[in-house]
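Subgroup meeting minutes
Present: P.N., E.W., G.H.
Scribe: E.W.

1. P.N. recapped why we're keeping a running log of single-chain structure predictions: easier to compare across weeks, and new members can see raw inputs and outputs side by side.
2. G.H. added today's entry (124 aa).
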Amino acid sequence: VQLQASGGGLVQAGGSLRLSCVGFGRTLRRDTMGWFRQAPGKEREFVTAITSSGVSTYYSDSVKGRFTISRDNAKNTVYLQMNSLKPEDTAVYFCAADEMGWGTPSSSVAYDYWGQGTLVTVSS
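Output recorded in log:
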């Protein structure tokens, strides 16, 4: 199983980016999918997650109202739309898959597969 994240880059504060995470080697349609991020010198933190059906979504307080997670199971892809970006959003963003979706969505230990990360840099 391979998760490939893309879409990161350099953007000014207030701007937007859309990250994508594509799964290769198995279907992600039964998985809860999550996005985590890790800023330099900090621990990895939960950003958002979405259940297999897409009915339920979860957000950290720091991104609620600015970020939106979505998925297209037909394309085996999960998206993270990031609006109103702030310098403190600068981090490497990782997508992750919780096989069968049985874990706590905000806990990194719940996830079985991880992508390689994509760097988001927000300039002030």
